[in-house]
Write a structure and sequence with these properties.
Layout (H helix, E strand, L loop, with lengths): L2 E6 L12 E5 H8 L5 E3 L5 H29 L3 E6 L13 H8 L10 E3 L6 E10 L2 E11 L1
Parallel strand pairs: 4-7
Antiparallel strand pairs: 1-2, 1-3, 5-6, 6-7
């Protein structure tokens, strides 16, 4: 399979951040990254664009780092309670999504549902969870699922 170099315009999980030059399979670039606006083809003249994208990312990270520290202080060690419909045996009808957890956390701090890491929740009880607030800052909390 042929690999091509692309420059990421947005952060892509398991691949890199905006301004990074990465080598990916040509089909992945042609069919997903480029049409979605996540990357563009690499060229020798793109060095200036890469530098400006990295500067913008670093400036944004510096601003969000302060917000992330404040959010970590608000979230760390808290218990988020979510009510869900359960069967007679205590199993949930469906699971608890990251979106539901993010909505419950919104009282304390606004978080991206994609940055929440928790094991699959299929029953009532308490479950440990973490949220990545910044590339270097994450916060731990507990998700408590109770019957409606």
């Amino acid at each position: 399979m042929a690999e091509i170099k692309v420059i990421l315009t947005k952060s892509v999980s398991n691949l890199g951040h905006s301004g990074d030059v990465v080598e990916v399979r040509s089909g992945y670039a042609r069919n997903y990254l480029i049409p979605q606006g996540l990357a563009f083809a690499w060229s020798k003249g793109a060095a200036a664009q890469i530098a400006s994208m990295r500067r913008a990312r670093l400036a944004k990270n510096a601003a969000t780092r302060e917000d992330a520290v404040a959010a970590k202080a608000a979230i760390e060690g808290t218990i988020v309670e979510i009510a869900a419909k359960v069967s007679e045996s205590g199993k949930l009808f469906g699971g608890i999504s990251a979106e539901k957890i993010a909505a419950a956390l919104a009282v304390k701090a606004v978080v991206d549902p994609k940055s929440i890491h928790v094991a699959a929740i299929k029953s009532t009880g308490e479950f440990p969870a973490t949220v990545a607030l910044h590339p270097e800052i994450s916060s731990s909390f507990t998700v408590k699922v109770v019957a409606e």
